[in-house]
Specification:
The complex is a heterodimer of chains A (about 675) and B (about 140). With about 675 residues, chain A is α/β, with parallel strands linked by helices. Chain A has 3 domains: about 250 residues, Rossmann fold (3-Layer(aba) Sandwich), CATH 3.40.50.720; about 230 residues, FAD/NAD(P)-binding domain (3-Layer(bba) Sandwich); about 55 residues. Chain A is built from 23 helices and 22 strands. In chain A, strands 3-2-1-4-19-18-17 form a 7-stranded mixed β-sheet, with helices on both faces. In chain A, helix 3 crosses helix 16, helix 7 packs across helix 8 and helix 11 runs parallel beside helix 14. The longest helix of chain B has 13 residues. In chain B, the strands form 2 sheets. In chain B, strands 2-1-5 form a 3-stranded mixed β-sheet, with helices on one face. Chain B has a two-stranded antiparallel ribbon with strand order 3-4. Classes of the chains: A alpha/beta (about 675), B alpha+beta (about 140). The complex binds flavin-adenine dinucleotide (FAD) and FE2/S2 (inorganic) cluster. FE2/S2 (inorganic) cluster binds next to loops of chain B. Chain B: GO terms for molecular function: 2 iron, 2 sulfur cluster binding; electron transfer activity; metal ion binding.
Chain lengths: ~675, ~140
């Protein structure tokens, strides 16, 4: 190791030469750095505790003081949120900088964000981006930790202490509200919950949309997500059952009585936010008749709307699709297909409770609008006069698809207009009661940065911008932007685990691939592309069990097996580090070693191995158990010996005198 | 060794010219960088670009579902490919910095006819590290 070479004991000089400046140590290459820093970390941990130092609050301009403690051997970056934004940021950082070490932290066990839990199951081609993301996870410079939630398991300031750079890419976790009466009744769902339900999101396990009580459903909103909901509600189950749709949703949709879905929007065709691809898809579905009321269409195509359409190629190409739907209007009464009706200039007024069961929704009141204002800024204004008569749609399923909101980490300032985090080229600005304009080491990407709009591909230029800003700041040693308190990322996960009140199983990249393969295997059994785990509990149980199976094969020791089955054993995988003093067990023979040598654990022995992590008290337990076995064996041996002696004495007859047979 | 017989030499040149090197060039939006890529007939433009590590994503794996393989053709080359399908046009609507001669690389099958053409990559796929700041699609 280069340290020991450069610090060789001084030899007496033979003649007095001018002392040469110390040779700087060679720059170690990356793998060595990691190994070394692990060792250093280990040594630090096992040093006797020094006097507690008063904690310094450090201001950004005082970095010089700590320059020495800062290692520039590698850049430690933490990305919070494993959605498209997080992965694309990681991808570009890795591509541009060799010394990049990235940890990705995700709230859910499985990565992918809305690619896994948002994109509709009948759009498997969109989910192909996961291949790209898996490539990032397979990179040896990336570690993935699922099942750790920012703000619950780990705080943002903790992360800023451990990493040079923290990138927030946790998307939008809340729904916008409509502010209607009856919005909180049972049967009124946000599109997010409904989408999570059919995609098997763990948070939506308990959602049970009522698909059987009424024939009509209402979706409020004119975006792609609204069309996704309408399509899943009407699409033939024979087509859906082959996808990776959640098993629960599949069986509920099989029983569904819904025949007519109203997709309601307060403005017109030109103002709708959906894309042509999704709209066209409706016209190509088997067993579904998309319709538009020609009268409604006429009403919204005023001069201003026509003007809006003029310069917009996409909108112009939308018109033939809408015209096809208008032609379907007359067939609505005679068809046996399911109907999706796109409704324009219609706003919800209130959601009415059921008469007998007032906790659930019975229907929705709609009112008609007209458009007002100049092109590009038209607003919906309620009609008055005889047309203002509200319309009532009886429905037990009302889905609000009117947008998402951020769930901001306290301290982050959200911009007024679209509710995204205030930032400049990806650097978070003005946060944390700090006197500084820009907060060091904190960056944003994705929906948190741009607001909840755009497709997956929109995250690419956005992630590039954030990655470039990060690299610029790192390369320029632009201290104000980089959290200089970074202590390195080793042991981060252990610190997180240590601090937990309720133990949590951390899911790694390896676990992800294992779970994914299991989901595909279960899917094949049921004739689907995948059958997702619907609860975190089930997923963790599966992972723990499969690890135990592997270990069981290796282990001959009964005592160990009983430990594994009865004890809660945190599992340790590659690159993870055990808490101090714990025992790492990778095979039966290692248990011997652990018991005999009382060796706590040696980080280098973990390198690249998987195993079971036994808390310290298990050593005592195992030692005790072993000594019990030894004692038992000893006593058994004694019994046999005594019995034998008795037997001999019995055979020889006289106990008092030695017999010749003894000799 | 005796010199090759004249008819054999003829044969050699013939076989070499029967498999000519086809190539297509990907240029950055400002023309500062360009990568010539060899291809064989039947490959899609996206495949060719990915082989040579050109800065192009192809996130959906060529399924016409992401518009990250957006390329911009020269006017004169635009006609050399079959008309885009409705699906492709729908995806192109979502591409940023779209132009009249924009196409999706994954939908373009290359043939001998396309030898020597040059296509441009749209602004946002270019490394912004060295270049000027390019506005991201915040619309
Ligand atoms: C229903 C729906 C369907 C869509 N369909 C399509 C489509 O077909 N095609 C398309 O191109 N685009 C589609 N989109 C858009 C696309 O999904 C988004 O543009 C993209 O996912 C945004 O990426 P993101 O990384 O910013 O956010 P997300 O994908 O939401 O990722 C955020 C991640 O952070 C995690 N997280 C949240 N809070 C925390 C926390 N406290 N700690 C740690 N982690 C946390 C989340 O679990 C999630 O994994 C769809 C969007 C929705 C809502
Ligand atoms: S690669 Fe996705 S559209 Fe071409």
């Amino acid at each position: 190791m280069w340290r020991s070479v450069t610090r060789a004991r001084p030899v007496l000089p033979l003649c007095s030469l001018p002392s040469a400046p110390p040779v700087p140590p060679p720059r170690p290459f990356i793998s060595r750095v990691r190994r070394f820093s692990q060792l250093q970390h280990f040594q630090e941990k096992h040093q006797p505790p020094s006097e507690p130092q008063p904690r310094q609050t450090v201001l950004p301009w005082e970095d010089e003081v700590r320059e020495g403690s800062f290692r520039w051997d590698d850049y430690n970056v933490c990305i919070v949120g494993a959605g498209p934004a997080g992965f694309y940021t990681a991808k570009y950082l890795l591509k541009k900088e060799e010394m990049m070490q990235i940890d990705i932290i995700e709230k859910l066990p499985m990565p992918g964000g809305l690619v896994r839990y948002g994109v509709a199951p009948d759009h498997p081609e969109v989910k192909n981006v996961m291949n790209d993301f898996e490539e990032v996870m397979n990179n040896p410079r990336v570690r993935y930790f699922g099942n750790i939630e920012l703000q619950k398991e780990v705080g943002i300031n903790q992360l800023r202490e451990w990493y040079h750079v923290v990138v927030l890419a946790y998307g939008c976790q809340k729904d916008k509200m409509l502010g209607l009466d009856g919005e909180d009744l049972e049967g009124v769902l946000s599109a997010r919950r409904f989408v999570f339900w059919y995609n098997g999101h763990p948070e939506a396990f308990s959602v049970q949309p009522d698909l059987t009580s009424s024939e009509e459903a209402v979706v409020i909103g004119h975006g792609n997500v609204a069309l996704d909901c309408a399509r899943v509600l009407t699409r033939k189950i024979s087509e859906l059952e082959k996808t990776d749709i959640s098993d629960l949703a599949e069986s509920a949709l099989r029983q569904s009585a819904i025949r007519w879905v109203h997709v309601v929007g307060r403005r017109g065709v030109v103002q709708a936010a959906w894309t042509n691809k999704e709209l066209r898809e409706l016209t190509q579905l088997d067993g579904v008749l998309p319709i538009v009321d020609p009268a409604e269409y006429e009403a919204n195509m005023n001069d201003a709307s026509k003007k809006e359409m003029e310069g917009n190629r996409g909108k112009q190409r939308m018109m033939p699709i809408i015209e096809t739907m208008m032609k379907n209007w007359d067939r609505r009464e005679i068809t046996d297909k399911k109907i999706i009706q796109l409704r324009f200039l219609t706003s919800p007024v209130r959601i009415t409770p059921h008469a007998a069961e007032p906790w659930r929704a019975d229907g929705i009141e709609l009112r008609r609008n007209r458009l007002e204002g100049e092109p590009g800024r038209q607003r919906a204004v309620p009609l008055d006069g005889p047309d203002a008569e509200p319309e009532y749609v009886q429905s037990n399923l009302i889905i609000k698809s009117v947008g998402f909101k951020h769930d901001a980490v306290p301290g982050l300032i959200l911009s007024e207009e679209d509710g995204s985090v205030c930032h400049h080229e990806g650097r978070v600005e003005l946060a944390y009661q700090s006197p500084f304009q820009i907060i060091g080491g904190l960056y944003v990407a994705g929906w948190l940065k741009r607001g909840p709009k755009g497709v997956i591909a929109s995250n690419i230029p956005d992630a590039m911008e954030t990655a470039n800003t990060i690299l610029k700041d790192l390369w320029a040693r632009e201290r104000i932007y980089i959290s200089f308190r970074s202590k390195g990322r080793e042991g981060v996960v252990e610190k997180v685990v240590e601090d937990l009140r309720i133990p949590r199983r951390i899911v790694t990249d390896k676990d992800y691939f294992q779970t994914k393969n299991e989901e595909i295997r279960r899917g094949i059994e049921r004739g689907k592309t995948a059958s997702k785990f619907l609860r975190i509990k089930d997923m963790i149980q599966f992972l723990d069990k499969s690890y135990r199976d592997v270990l069981d094969k290796e282990q001959k020791e009964i005592s160990v097996r009983s430990l594994l089955i009865h004890g809660t054993t945190p599992l340790l995988t590659r690159n993870q580090r055990a808490p101090e003093g714990a025992l790492l067990l990778t095979s039966g023979s290692e248990l011997d070693e652990i018991i005999n040598t009382e060796r706590p654990y040696n980080p280098s022995s973990i390198d690249g191995k998987d195993g079971v992590l036994l808390p310290v008290q298990y050593r005592e337990f195992a030692i005790r158990q072993r000594s019990e076995y030894i004692g038992l064996g000893y006593m058994l041996g004694m019994c046999v010996f005594i019995y034998y002696c008795m037997y001999r004495i019995h055979v020889s007859g006289d106990p008092g005198r030695p017999d010749e047979k003894w000799i | 060794m005796p010199p090759p017989l004249p008819f054999l030499r003829r044969f050699n040149t013939l076989s070499a010219s029967s498999a000519p090197k086809l190539r297509i060039t990907f240029a950055s939006y400002d023309g500062s960088e360009s990568t010539p890529c060899p291809f064989t007939a039947g490959q899609t433009m996206l495949d060719v670009a990915l082989e040579k590590d050109v800065d192009i994503e192809g996130a959906c794996g060529g399924q016409c579902a992401c518009s990250t393989c957006h390329v911009i053709m020269k006017e004169e080359d635009y006609g050399k490919f079959p008309e885009p399908t409705e699906d492709e046009l729908d995806m192109l609507d979502l591409a940023m910095h779209r132009q009249d001669t924009s196409r999706l690389g994954c939908q373009l099958k290359l043939t001998e006819e396309h030898d020597g053409i040059e296509v441009k990559l749209p602004a946002e796929t270019i490394s912004q590290l060295d270049g000027p700041h390019v506005p991201t699609g915040k619309e």
